[in-house]
Amino acid sequence: MSATEIKSPRSAVAKVGSNRIAPQYRRNGSSKGNFEMLAWLFMRLSGVVLVVLIFGHLFVNLLVGDGIHAIDFGFVAGKWADPFWQIWDLAMLWLAMLHGTNGVRTIINDYAEKDATRLWLKIVLYAATTVIIILGTLVIFTFDPCPVVNGVQLPGGFCPVP
């Protein structure tokens, strides 16, 4: 290979013919369908939606009211008392996790050379993603700022006194 020649990447697509301008390619094995195209499209769309969600989140938390000095347990409790903010934060959690998981999946596919290594890395990735999405969703929807334990309300300066 000469100094100006670029080595072909690993691919399931083999070049047919010697047309340098527009080479033709032939697939070896079965096609994966449209999954990779849909994953690529998801990354673009979710990225745009995430930009809106994240900047909205930052604006409300850092610029409205007292800014960063107002963020405490009571601020989050008041925010999550409104279903709008629960859905907003849930969408941000789900999209961020799925967007990141898809990106890491692509990196694993690009750099893990052995099939077994690729398989186990993806299993760990998908398991971690599932656990974080489930736990995050449970926290958002089961959050109780004024819990009662054994008939006694736990102390908090923002909870009404019975």
Automatic annotation (TrEMBL):
A Pfam family of this chain: Sdh_cyt
- Gene3D superfamilies for the chain: Fumarate reductase/succinate dehydrogenase, transmembrane subunit
Where is this chain primarily localised?
Answer: membrane
Q: Which UniProt keywords apply?
A: Heme, Iron, Membrane, Metal-binding, Transmembrane, Transmembrane helix
Location in the cell reads: Membrane
What sections of the protein cross the membrane? 41-64, 84-102, 123-143
Q: Does the keyword Hydrolase apply?
A: no
This protein's name: Succinate dehydrogenase / fumarate reductase membrane anchor subunit
